[in-house]
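ugh ok fine here u go
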Amino acid sequence: MATRVRSKRRIVRQRAKGPIDPSIGARIRELRTARGLTQADLAGPDFTKGFISLLETGRTRISLRAAEIVAARLGTSAPELLAAVDSGNGELELLLLRGDQQSAAGLPRAALEYFDRVLSQASGGLKARAMRSRGRTLVEIGRAREGVAVLEEAGRAFEMLGQRELEIRTMYDRALAHGHLDEPGNALALALECESAMRMGGLVDKTLELKLRSFLAATFARAGDLESADLQARQALRLADDVVDLEALGTLYSTLSDSRQRQSQLAEALKYARKSLGVFEELGRDRAIGQMWHNLASIYLSRGDFGEAEKAIERAERVAKESSSPALEARLVGLRAELAAAQRRWKSAEELALAAEEHASASAVTRGRALLVRARALATRRAPLRAIRECIVKAAEVLKKEPAGQRAEVHDLYARLLADRGEWKTAYDESRKAVELIQPRLR
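structure:
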């Protein structure tokens, strides 16, 4: 199903300035090797293989525009790629570079060993950079809670050092970490703070802006603010014409898929989900691949295509197991519960929902949705109303820090279940709560 995504041909006209720094070439070579790219791969349609060779051997300069393109292909940023090596910390800089190399090569545990060695000896800006790299790697291997703490420390260090650009980049990293933790409220607050900082001139980086707007679109969509999600997605699509970053493009397609699904435009949602999956398969991003199979399963479920939903869940489960992603495994148990409920296999739905709720790595959203499935299953077998209410109260408590759209679903479901029991007054009150959450201006 993978779809190859080709970047547009760009002509790099900006002239390089300043002296040649051989450490930049060494850094490019290290990262290229870690990515498994040839010099021709890195050159792409924008440069010649000969230019990359001269660059790596320290025999030519690189312009800022060229650095942005090269950095995007290497999975880093231009400022970090161009950062000069401090001769007094050359050995530690090399260790940090090796750690970043291991992380880019999909060897996070080896990367963490390098980062820890740097942290045990470094100080100042180098220590802060090592903390940031360590925090990002912890998030990638599913230890996002630890990663958040490390990234917060790195952000404070950059602020104290007056390194505003790295402070802003770390702010974005923190938003992503909260996204991994299924904490959209915290994620949205940090992403908006990052957007504001960039708008105020703290950082100019189109690649990061593309990633940020894609992330904001996804977070707004999840919160039910589809108007804001579409606005961010349109701005991201315009930026995509000027940015060479397949990962950002994959994230953007995923975001568009999610927002279209929430708007019940399921054909469009499926199209973008497949595009996103194709990009992440090309990049070899296992966790993102697993998440996209999960998203495809959710779309198929919304379409009533239960056979395809089952196949997609099975693919996602294999990826989650191979990539050691317990949070995704928990979400998939919850999705299986929703599939069983859609097929009216209520006994299985209730058992799976309970398993999802009690999963050690289940997020608040996973637990909340599982409790709603349990409430539906209890209602179907005409369980006492107090048992249904217990699930609803638990779901409301679990989701109390989530966006209004998530909390509104709890009241909406309870209203429908109460109406089925003839509890009209209480059902009306619950419906009103749902409406007030979605449209606070009506309060």
